[in-house]
Amino acid sequence: MIYRSVELYNVQELLEGGIHDVLSPEVYRRFQGMGTWYTKRARGDRGVWLCRLPDALRQQLNPNAQIMSLATAACEIRFNLRSEAAAFTLGNGWSWPPAVLDVYQGAFLVNRHALGPEPVRVEVTLPPNMAELRRLTAERCLPYDAGLTRVILPYCASTRLLNMEGDFAPPEAHQVPAERLLCYGSSITQGYCALGPMDSYAQLVAARLGMDPINLGLGGAAHLEPEMAEYIAERTDWHMAVLEMGINILGAISTDEFARRVDRFVTRIAQAHPDKWVFCIDLFTCAHDFAGTAKIAAFRGIVRQQVARLASPRLVHVCGAALLTRADGLTADLVHPSPAGMAEIAHRLVQVIVSATGTSPASQE
User: Fold this and answer.
1) pTM
2) How far apart are CA 309 and CA 301, in angstroms?
3) Which residues in 21-98 belong to E strands, given as ranges?
4) How distant is the alpha carbon of residue 151 from its chain centre?
5) Fewest CB atoms less than 10 Å from the CB: which of 25, 61, 177, 258?
6) If one looks up domain 2-175 in CATH, what number appears?
7) Using the 8-state DSSP alphabet, how is residue 337 labeled?
8) Span between the terminal Cα atoms of the chain, in Å
9) Which regions of the chain are under pLDDT 70?
10) Where are the domains of the chain?
11) Please, how many CA atoms are within 13 Å of residue 315, restricted to the half-sphere of its CB?
12) Which CATH architecture has domain 180-357?
């Protein structure tokens, strides 16, 4: 999306107004139950909310998805800076957990900012060593042009764009990766407990493959709705997909219902894009494994069986427990990966993708 001469990457719609304008009364009641960390930061009606889904689709999904699609995982403000300096004033409608945003110049981290309850003014200037950054980018074939400035927004905050100052030009096609990796899933895909916005497994895998990430992780909300399957199937801007399925509905639905949802979800996407690689991850290692819960094995078997049933040459089942193998790769809730767990998932998933596609991490052609 181009907005006032900058690209709002991974943003599908801008929403105006206060929290009561973007959430229905029913969803707002659920939102209130999430605690004061959210609600105290959701007051006011300044600026625009950045939404990762079209609003019409958002309102058809489960309540958690309606909230979490406002979190800015893999969303970026991208531009070529034409003035000597620029500034962005950003607000935090709510955050889960404390929010961090990064400023990159091409592929290089410049600085990091905390986004708390009060608006933050992020000032941007070009680094003094731009000539060296351009040289290294060309020599090492880095995926982002050194002249492209990227403000990478928090993965678990509803970042609100309040003001922009400066002279900008939007990115040109040659300044960004030619291919995109779409990742759908739970809070794990969204990035919960990653160190920063570039440290989720989805971001790490995309970076290793030289692809641009499209993060559709929805904390507590990956319910495999047909509307979401239709949306992913109809999108033509991705070249490879990762679908993480199961953890958000393990305790809520039967194994038979899960089989129906996986069948419908995966079939719609795979049949719409038979020429594209789609990697289907079942549940990552979690507390249910340590407790010996039979249902988690059943859910994993369903994903494996549905992928085998479709027998599509570019549709691949990936066992989540084989990606996250260590108990100490989890946080204390025994559900979400720690930063070390995120790194292990990314490392092992890249190995799976490279092995399946027969290409190197640097090229997925």
Assistant:
1) 0.95
2) 12
3) 48-51, 76-81, 86-95
4) 15
5) 25
6) 2.60.120.260
7) B
8) 26
9) 34-45, 97, 362-365
10) 2-175, 180-357
11) 21
12) 3-Layer(aba) Sandwich (3.40)
